[in-house]
Amino acid sequence: MNVLPLQFDDGVSAQSLQLTGEETITITGVASLDKPGRRCELEIVRLDGSMQTAAAISRIDTDNELAYFKNSGILSYVLRGMAA
Prior knowledge:
Largest sheet: 4 strands, antiparallel
Distance between the termini: 22 Å
Strand order of the largest sheet: 1-4-3-2
Structural class: alpha+beta
Number of domains: 1
Strand content: 25-35%
Number of helices: 2
Shape: elongated
Order of helices and strands: EEEEHH
Number of strands: 4
Radius of gyration: 15 Å
């Protein structure tokens, strides 16, 4: 499992999106992360079924962080390197 750090665009926040923690959020564009700082789209589905979208920027800021993310973490990255 990975953690993908995201940052909302300027002027957008959890408060402005009225997020309560009860929503289901799907992040699209994760598979196409090929460079640090790429944008992702968030699809927010609320309990009442209504949907909203928002943009966020990936806070994977370096090529090394991207490699760790794609390898499911730094430990997996190191172990794969040692096995190769």
